Every structure is written in C-alpha cells, then in structure tokens.
Amino acid sequence: MTLLRREALILLGAGLAGGARAAEQPAGTARATDFAFETPEGAPMPLSAYAGKPVLVVNTATACGYAGQLAGLQTLWTRFGDRGLVVLGVPSPDFGNQEPLDGPAIAEAARKNHGVTFPLTAKTRVKMPGAHPFYRWAAAERPAETPRWNFHKYLIARDGTLAAAFATQVEPTDPRVISGIAATLDQA
C-alpha cells in the first residue's frame, strides 16, 4: 500500500471514528478520544478505547538517534501501566525519513531492539500541513509545542484534554515527565 493511500485511509478512518466530529466542534471542546489511528496491521485504533486513562502519545522512529528513548517509554509503560497509563508510539517518517519500516515490521523492530510491548500505530504523519487529525488538534491546543523532531511527547489527561507536551530532548524518565504522569494518574 502506498504511503499516500495509507494516509488517505487513516484520515478516512479518523473521520469515521470521530475525527470529523472533532473538526466540527468549537475550538477547545475536542478531546483526544475524538480521534483514531490505525494499527500496524491496518485495523482501526480509536483513542476512545483509552477513555478515562492518561495517554502518553509519542512520535517514534526506529532509525533515529533518539530511538533509545523507546526503552525509556517501555520503562514508563511497565512502571505505570497497572495504574492506567497508556504509552502509545506513533511511528512517523516526517523527520529525515528515520522510520524506514512499514506495518508490523516497525513493531517487530521496536520489540526486538528495545523491548517494546506498549501499543504502536501504523506509520503516521505528525508534521504540518499533512499531519494526522490528532496532531492538528494538539497543535491547535499548544501551538508553540508541536513536534520538531522524533520523540516529541504529548500527555493526555484522563478527561481527554492535553495536559502537557515534552520536546524530543526530554527523556521519557525525566522528572518532568514522571511528575506529569503522576499528576494525571492522581486525577479523579
């Protein structure tokens, strides 16, 4: 499947799963759970499946110099998953095409090379202007905190709002990320 066709299917799936609904809502009323991604195998992955849970959404790339952060993300998944945290990797080719793999090969490389067991989406555009609807929503919510490289992190609160954003250089196990996660886990 070509990348352009895959992106069209993702956008269509996002619209069917709620992305269009989010686009119709007044600014500030959309929630992360209004959007959907696609699994590496091509099935829908609606964020509504994680409603009521904090979600750390990270654009990843297996051939990036920051790919070692995958192990740190796995540490967060292991440490906080039982308390409800979802870590979601969103492989993206947007920055130097450092995600050369496609489909299940991405998940296999992340598992084999970094021990990843947290969910990953299909390869997805995260950079404007062709960004996935979730990333367009996040950019509207926090215009100064958009992905400028791989491993940008968005922390979604239990209510589906954007709680925090962390730049590429902020390691997953940085105290700022841990504090943000702890605060979202403590929300009722």
Q: List unreliable stretches of 5+ residues.
A: 1-26
Based on secondary structure, the structural category is: alpha+beta
How many angstroms separate the termini? 42 Å
Numbering strands along the chain, what is their spatial order in the largest sheet?
A: 4-3-5-6
Radius of gyration: 15 Å
Tell me the CATH superfamily.
Glutaredoxin
Mean pLDDT over the full residue set: 88
CATH topology: Glutaredoxin
N-to-C order of helices and strands: HEEEHEHHEEH
Number of helical segments with 4 or more residues: 5
Shape: globular
**Fraction in beta strands:** 5-15%
Q: Report the biggest beta sheet as strand number plus sense, adding barrel if it closes.
A: 4 strands, mixed
Keywords: Oxidoreductase, Peroxidase, Signal
GO molecular function: peroxidase activity
Signal peptide: 1-22
InterPro entries: Glutathione_peroxidase, GPX_AS, TAT_signal, Thioredoxin-like_sf, Thioredoxin_domain
Explain the overall architecture.
GO terms for molecular function: peroxidase activity. InterPro entries: Glutathione_peroxidase (IPR000889), GPX_AS (IPR029759), TAT_signal (IPR006311), Thioredoxin-like_sf (IPR036249), Thioredoxin_domain (IPR013766). Residues 1-22 form the signal peptide. This is Glutathione peroxidase. The active site is at residue 64. By secondary structure, this protein is α+β, with helices and mostly antiparallel strands. The protein has a single domain (32-184), classed as Glutaredoxin (3-Layer(aba) Sandwich), CATH 3.40.30. It contains 5 helices and 6 strands, in the order αβββαβααββα. A 4-stranded mixed sheet has the order 4-3-5-6, with helices on one face. The longest helix is centred in the N-terminal third of the chain and has 22 residues, at 3-24. The termini are far apart.
